[in-house]
User: Fold these one by one.
Assistant:
Number 1:
Amino acid sequence: MLRARQAMDSGDASGMLQAAIDIIGLLAPPRHLPASCSEADMSEQAKQELRAGQQTCLRGILLELVGLQGSGGLDLTDDGTRKLLQVPFHRLRLWKDGCSSVNLAAERQWQRIFQAVDSA
């Protein structure tokens, strides 16, 4: 997400907001870690690992955009910003309410994202 990085570097709030909305649209819901994988699942496992890596990157950028990682990001105390993020954050709240945080893949990232959603 080059546009997200450019928006953060330039302090462009509109660009950061649009990038956050785009990323939330690309995110897959939280998932639980598989109990085990067999050798027959290796090609499927490799695909899952690639998708998981991409999702990890998207979550990391989202954390930067909402100011929970790195420096800068959107001001979630601003009423206008919170209003504009209301719909995408509602999607994340639904995911939060629909999943158990026990044995969640990328648990720390999801907890921090949910923290941002709860604070907005």
Number 2:
Amino acid sequence: LADPSPTDALPGGVYGINLETHLENFKREIALPIEACVMMLLAKGMKEEGLFRLAAGASTLRKLKYSLDSGSSNIEEFYLEPHAVAGALKSYLRELPEPLMTYELYDDWFKAANMKEPERRLECFHEV
């Protein structure tokens, strides 16, 4: 079997799709790539050195992204590839059309981050 390429992704995939659209399409509260990758990393990757710094093999990362993009939750084969899992998560977040800390709330996030007092800063983040 040839490696799937990003252009082979199924319509209605998850990479590069608006988060709200993804959640509605898949009837989820947490985006599939976020939930699946975090669960795998908690189970097998937390002791891995350079988890989010070191790159995964391109072929493995492409296969994992294809699996996630097709809506598959059967991705156990990647449990032993924590760098690929971290890479797939980073890629998902990077490819979102709008960041998790939305453009609409950017000024509020920025203002909260610049609070000098830690208690007040935390309070402001909770308000956002």
Number 3:
Amino acid sequence: GFATLSSTDVGYYGSGIYFTTHALYALPYFSTKRKPAVLLSYLLAGNAYPVVEHPEGPDNHMGKVIKPGYQSHYVLTNNKGMPHTERSLEGVYDEIVINQESQVCPAFIYELDNSRFASALKFFETGKRKRLQETERERKRSKSQKKLKGEKAAVR
């Protein structure tokens, strides 16, 4: 069964089998394997509980079963696995926690060449910061261009 391919984890967001919709987010988990592979699966999350509590906060879900009345936990995270709290959607990943292997239908196994994982990991770990810096540079460049256009219009 599927459960023999994964391990249940006490985990920050509940006890269960963890999934993500972002391969880049999963990279640190499989990049060190000798023959890395990604298992793409159909997942029946059912009624997902939206986790917003910090894993170290007083109302955390660490190690707890899926909340009663729900079939999974869903959380938006940053690249460190902590709940995403910024307004920007830049660098947002997710985690889906289920507790029954019957909620999963494996579809494809992708065997990966790990020769480029080092650069991909570096991008994952620093990508958000770099993208924010690029956005800031672009914003300043745009502001300068608008100012320059305003000065030209005033001269005419």
